[in-house]
Specification:
Layout (H helix, E strand, L loop, with lengths): L13 H4 L2 E2 L5 E11 L16 H13 L5 E3 L8 E12 L3 H7 L2 H12 L3 E9 L11 E9 L13 E2 L6 H9 L3 E4 L13 E13 L2 E8 L6 H13 L7 H8 L14 E7 L14
Parallel strand pairs: 4-11, 6-7
Antiparallel strand pairs: 1-2, 2-4, 2-5, 3-4, 6-10, 6-11, 8-9, 9-10
Helix pairs in contact: 2-4, 5-6
Amino acid sequence: MPPQPVRTPRSDDPAEAAPQRAPGGVAAVRLRIDLAYDGAPFAGFARQRDQVTVQGTLEAALGRLLGCQITSTGAGRTDRGVHALAQVVHLDVPEGSQRAASLVADPTMLRARLDHLVGPAITVWAVRRVPRHFDARFSARSREYRYRLVDAVTADPIRRSDRWHVGEPLDVGAMRRGARLLLGEHDFASFCRRAPGRTTVRRLTLATVTRPGPGRVDVRLVGTAFCHQQVRAIVGCLVEVGRGRRPSGWIGEVLAARDRAAAARVAPPHGLTLERVGYGPGVPAAPPPGVR
């Protein structure tokens, strides 16, 4: 069972204790919600018109509970079919109704009721009150993703939904050497789906390829931020190296090309999980301790 959330203690910081103000001067409370989800039933995290998404489902449930329209901000967007163990969102609740006020005053109750309403594909780990300067997206200092692969001939059918069954042996050593070439700050244009007007320069602080058990390979990537499809594109190229179709040094050539056409096809989404979001000193990371 997921750990029960701990109520945020009252702060001695006047900035946190004072009433917060939403745009327009309306008093508001900012909440942080830590959640996990199975990405299979959703068209990604971000709300989309006429699509079932994680953010849309969460906001609809919050609206029902609090009696007002809610707009949330997430730590990162995940694509259709991508999972999360540690998504974080923040939202502002106007202090206008007794129902909203009573729930905001009792985060434990709000968590339990919200967890019930969002359905079995989403788990709400914790709800806590935070100061207005906390921003789920811009306050985050790191994101950690894990991509799970199976290189055995056969795969456990129970776990097919969260790992890519490659079905042939992978050279983990070669993949590891290739991954090291991506460390540091680079223009990852070859690994990113371009968005007009947005930079593709990113910093990758950790890149590991491990074999946690027979027939299993994990790729773990940690960075300050990632652009669209970056992790899946990197994994797609590392699998080409692991299969022996490309040498390890080819990863560096793809990076230097700054051309999406130079890379291999992106890995399928269902093997990818957002596993951790790190914040600054004194701000709890997600997920809660002990959940991995």
